[in-house]
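Renewal narrative, Specific Aim 1. Our central claim is that a sequence can be written position by position from structural information alone. The example that follows is taken directly from our test logs and has not been curated for this report. It begins with the structure tokens describing the chain, in the order in which they were read.
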């Protein structure tokens, strides 16, 4: 909660930020990105459906599947456009007390420096 207050204070009074799935977003940009995704996905699907249903060398059972694939391409395109135009609003703060990475990430340590997770009689100490 404290971090969210810092983000809102630093963002300015005109921006309305909220947290969605653990990430900070501006509501207006989220709405625009969602609308862009719906429009591009459906446009690609409908165009693909029109193109593939008119092709005679494609089986009738496959034309809807290909149209769905073109719709997914539209979804990926909208995600790329949204990522390009709407930059992240998060603030990352790093506080490290030690430079030893083995303390933070035990699997990053060399095998001889790792502590066994479960002690068994045959586990070396």
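The sequence written for that structure reads:
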């Amino acid at each position: 909660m404290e971090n969210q207050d810092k983000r809102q204070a630093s963002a300015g009074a005109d921006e309305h930020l909220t947290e969605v799935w653990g990430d900070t977003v501006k509501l207006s940009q989220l709405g625009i990105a969602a609308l862009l995704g719906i429009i591009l996905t459906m446009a690609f699907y409908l165009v693909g459906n029109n193109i593939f249903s008119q092709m005679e060398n494609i089986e009738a059972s496959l034309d809807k599947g290909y149209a769905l694939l073109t719709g997914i391409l539209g979804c990926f395109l909208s995600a790329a456009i949204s990522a390009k135009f709407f930059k992240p609003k998060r603030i990352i703060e790093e506080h490290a007390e030690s430079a030893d990475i083995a303390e933070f990430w035990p699997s990053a340590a060399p095998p001889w420096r790792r502590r066994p997770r479960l002690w068994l009689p045959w586990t070396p100490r």
